[in-house]
Amino acid sequence: MINGLAPPPGPRETRGFGPDRPIDTNATAKGKAKNRRIEFKLID
């Protein structure tokens, strides 16, 4: 739930990219923190 709103009902698709698509280096704690994320893409 984001801002008190739930996503509409319907099918969901999930993908795990883990080490394949980092946005920052894993050599530092700050970089590792940036790589721990969840991204949402809303498609109509």
The tally of strands reads 0
Give the mean pLDDT.
83
Largest sheet, strands/sense/barrel:
none
What is the 3D form? Answer: elongated
**Spatial separation of the terminal alpha carbons:** 18 Å
Structural class: mainly alpha
What would you report as the Rg, rounded to the nearest angstrom?
14 Å
Q: Secondary-structure blueprint of this entry?
A:
Blueprint: H1 29-35
Walk me through the structure:
It is built from one helix and no strands. The longest helix has 7 residues, at 29-35. With 44 residues, the chain is mainly α. Helices cover 16% and strands 0% of the residues.
Task: Summarize this structure briefly.
This protein has one helix at 29-35. It has 1 helix and no strands.
Give a quick set of tags describing it.
44 residues; mainly alpha
